[in-house]
TrEMBL record:
UniProt GO BP: lignin biosynthetic process; methylation
Entry keyword S-adenosyl-L-methionine: yes
UniProt family annotation: Belongs to the class I-like SAM-binding methyltransferase superfamily. Cation-dependent O-methyltransferase family.
Source organism of this protein record: Centaurea solstitialis
Catalyzed reaction equations: (E)-caffeoyl-CoA + S-adenosyl-L-methionine = (E)-feruloyl-CoA + S-adenosyl-L-homocysteine + H(+)
Superkingdom to which the source organism belongs: Eukaryota
SUPFAM superfamilies tied to this protein: S-adenosyl-L-methionine-dependent methyltransferases
Keyword Mitochondrion attached: no
Taxonomic path: Eukaryota, Viridiplantae, Streptophyta, Embryophyta, Tracheophyta
Its EC number(s): 2.1.1.104
Pfam families named in the record: Methyltransf_3 (PF01596)
Name of the protein this chain belongs to: caffeoyl-CoA O-methyltransferase
UniProt-annotated stretches for the region Disordered: 1-25
InterPro entries: Cation-dep_OMT, SAM-dependent_MTases_sf, SAM_O-MeTrfase
Amino acid sequence: MAINEETKTELNNEEQESGHQESGHKSLLQSDALYQYILETSVYPREPAPMKELREITAKHPIFDENGKYHGTYDFVFVDADKDNYINYHKRLVDLVKVGGLIGYDNTLWNGSVVVPPNAPMAKYIRYYRDYVLEFNKALVADPRIEICMLPVGDGITLCRRIN
């Protein structure tokens, strides 16, 4: 699905109305140095020790390795990210999870929009990502490497167990 400038403007206006705004530091601070300064002087000194440890460990351990070093090493992965890339994440994550391991995907019911007619009234950002979520759900059903269970909790969570 292509996104044009008009759609971006509409999505941004809707995000501002709903209180969901993009939190990328470039859009707010315009400076990597300022962003780093804020992290080092305000954020990191106040973070609990377990969060600091987790941040430092994950910074040194990229999940998407290119050489296959970590294939089949993870027991569980949870994804709550940009819905238009869920299929791309799945393609890479399924190899990283052990046979018998789980991948959880959040928001797979996408505000219930996946079960209503395409012309039903819905917010523009819901409508925009609806097709991505539908396509992703169909891709999971067709993937022979996993078995799935969709949980109607919150906005929908789909658990995928790797079977081969």
